[in-house]
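anyone else get weird line breaks when pasting these?? whatever heres mine. first is seq + tokens for prot A
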Amino acid sequence: MLSTKTISPTTGSRKKSKRVGRGNASGKGTFCGRGMNGQNSRSGGGVPDWFEGGQTPLFRRMPKLKGFTNARYTKHFNIINISDIELLASSGVTKIDATALLENNVIRKKTLPVKLLGNGELKTKCDVSVDAASASAVEAVEKTG
């Protein structure tokens, strides 16, 4: 069994930090490797991370946001298209609802409501039951009856 005293990191994988300000004999005394004067020689000196050398910073170049959408109250849907319904209807499914869509792997999350969009063309007559639909989707389903 190995003792914790025998385990050590690989040679050269851990580098000792340079101890500055311990006298001139150490090689990092007096100015501690910071140079004699200037912004970076002072404690707390230097520029912030977003500073771009006098160029107009990115956050000032970007347009201001207009309005606000609270993501907490957005409604999420399982999205299906009329082309998806046409595929199911042509395979023999007559009643299309959330359970039929789940069984045929058209939608994935059974907790979310289903929304029908108008992409595609419906040729086969079938009974469609969804939670929400776009205007073009309603028109396409009513057109086929």
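and prot B, same format (seq, then tokens)
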Amino acid sequence: MSPEPSAELRDRPESWPVHASEDIWTGPAPFSVRRDHISAPGDPDQFGRLVLVHPGASVVLAMNEDKRVLVLHQYRHPAGRRFVELPAGLVDAGEDPLVAAQRELREEALLVARSWSHLVTTYPSPGLSSERIEIYLARDLSPAPDRGNFEPTHEEADMTVSWVPMHSLVEGVLTGRLTDGPLALAVLTVAAGGENTLSRSPR
């Protein structure tokens, strides 16, 4: 069997019949959980699937002229680790993911950027969650005057910031020392694309 042409190798929208849905959990968080009862097309057998309904998120790899990247050091309770991460946050209802990325860069890193490029889109856990993450490259950086309406609390109040050479991040991902998923994907995308990625127009 010949391999599929690269232009045809892509994820495709598809929707199986949903016969019933039930809410499992809703609350003050911007997430909810439901159970859908679905079937394969043309097959009468139904089965249940849990769905974590997620608003999506934006992630920013902010790189300065020396190819140093701004990273955050933040404690994440579910994983029991302090991760090296990139600025990131949830996309508000109806919000453009790029606008969300620009907001998060200002709130978490006190930076604004003149140049923005879309790097990659990912669904980190499509077997469970509808979460879609948009990752951007930000360049031509300058200090932001303030954090806007954002006031760090709890884990975010404990968050620290540092500038790390891009090659150190690549090495950290490849050796398993850095394990945050969006950071790894952003770093390896830039490393794989080289200057073509860095000069790509925003999507």
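btw re prot B: Residues 198-203 have pLDDT under 50 and may be disordered. The domain at 57-198 is CATH 3.90.79.10 (Nucleoside Triphosphate Pyrophosphohydrolase).
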